[in-house]
Amino acid sequence: MIAVYLFIALVIIQRVIEVVIANRNAKWIKAQGGYEVGKAHYKYIVALHGVFFLSLLVEVSLVNKSFMLWSIIPLVFFLVAQVGRVWALSSLGRFWNTRIMVLPGAKVVAKGPYQYLRHPNYAIVITELACLPLIFQAYWTAIIFTVLNAVILTTRIKVEERALEEVTNYQEVFDKRNRFIPKYEE
């Protein structure tokens, strides 16, 4: 059981490091003349992710299931998502953030996974919120937070795309790309 808690703790530490990076990037964008949009719903995203980890820890503690052979499937998806996360974040560089930060006149990043779809990082978060609990048979956490995340992302993506369309070349660059699933041209 200690290995389970250690694994979850490592994911939480990763998220804390990402928040530190996001705050640093936000300061940089603001210094360049950028600003934040979507502040009203950001607190719900933070709360969702915080309660997700709490729920996961509680359910894992109560369920007390052992690692099962089929757990390898969500584990592989989760680990692949981590590679995708690093790829997406490093592709955006200083423009990556947990908040919606926009810089008027900036050219949107269209490299890395962004050359294939509009929101690879959100696709990764969707995968993580579903797969991490499934590794440990925390089914309620997987179901509830996948649904809640979908609700929040519906609002967030609209706000983000609208803001980027207003002050960057977002529409021009991403017009022919899907949000979550790569589109293959024939």
From TrEMBL:
Q: Chief localization class? A: membrane
Native species: Halalkalibacter akibai (strain ATCC 43226 / DSM 21942 / CIP 109018 / JCM 9157 / 1139) (Bacillus akibai)
Q: How does it sit in the membrane?
A: Multi-pass membrane protein
Q: State any GO BP term from the record.
A: methylation
InterPro entries, per database record: ICMT_MeTrfase (IPR007269), Metal_cation-efflux_comp (IPR052527)
A single GO CC term, please?
A: membrane
Q: Which residues span the membrane? A: 42-60, 67-88, 122-152
Protein name per Swiss-Prot or TrEMBL: Alkylpyrone O-methyltransferase
Keyword vocabulary terms for this entry: Membrane, Methyltransferase, Transferase, Transmembrane, Transmembrane helix
A GO molecular-function annotation: protein C-terminal S-isoprenylcysteine carboxyl O-methyltransferase activity
Which Pfam family is one of those matched by this entry?
ICMT
Q: Which domain of life is it from?
A: Bacteria
Where it sits in the cell: the answer is:
Membrane
